């Protein structure tokens, strides 16, 4: 990776650690995100931290709730860009696209939660806007979910389907190890 490549970390907030959430997949996702986070900083590549700010006052992501805060290990540094969103897509009404264009950034690496919601929505938009986008399969996770027919799907199934929706169409799906091998030191 010789061109500026932004690492976009989506919704790694304290609310995502709630025991009330459904079962999830990929218990190593946070460690992989942390590895990418550290490597991007070491390489001097841009890091963008995205957090969801809910419009619902009862949400754990509502302003003033502890759940809206970034998890301690993913706190942005003062010079790193923070995006606050109210919908799953990190590009909608946030200025993220303009921020990236102003810095000549055309390559994105997306990690975070949840694979089938905010990660997928943001990656679809990034791809549609012409960004070269990578979604890091083992640095994302999601939760068990019922499909439209009412069948409960495991988090692993939901995760894999979301990645399949993205790969080759809106983004390329890669692993943490692959990206770390290519990152200049």
TrEMBL record:
| UniProt keyword Hydrolase, yes or no | yes
Q: Which organism is it from?
A: Massilia norwichensis
Residues forming the Isochorismatase-like domain are: 5-177
Q: Does the keyword Phosphoprotein apply?
A: no
One Pfam family assigned to this protein is: Isochorismatase
Q: Which Gene3D superfamilies match?
A: Isochorismatase-like
CDD domains, A to Z: nicotinamidase_related
PANTHER family (alphabetical): ISOCHORISMATASE HYDROLASE, PEROXYUREIDOACRYLATE/UREIDOACRYLATE AMIDOHYDROLASE-RELATED
What is this protein's record name? Cysteine hydrolase
């Amino acid at each position: 990776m010789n061109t500026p490549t932004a690492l976009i970390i989506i919704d790694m907030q304290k609310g995502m650690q709630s025991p009330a959430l459904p079962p999830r997949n990929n218990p190593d996702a946070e460690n992989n995100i942390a590895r990418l986070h550290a490597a991007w900083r070491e390489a001097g590549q841009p890091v963008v931290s995205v957090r969801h700010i809910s419009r619902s006052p009862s949400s754990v992501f509502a302003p003033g709730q502890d759940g809206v805060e970034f998890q301690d290990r993913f706190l942005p540094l003062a010079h790193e860009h923070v995006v606050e969103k109210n919908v799953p897509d990190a590009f909608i009404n946030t200025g993220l696209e303009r921020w990236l264009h102003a810095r000549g950034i055309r390559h994105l690496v997306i990690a975070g939660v949840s694979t089938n919601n905010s990660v997928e929505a943001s990656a679809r938009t990034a791809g549609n806007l012409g960004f070269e986008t990578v979604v890091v399969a083992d640095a994302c996770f999601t939760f068990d979910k019922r499909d439209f027919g009412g069948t409960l799907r495991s988090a692993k199934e939901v995760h894999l389907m979301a990645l399949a929706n993205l790969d080759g169409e809106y983004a390329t799906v890669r692993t943490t190890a692959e990206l770390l091998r290519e990152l200049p030191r």
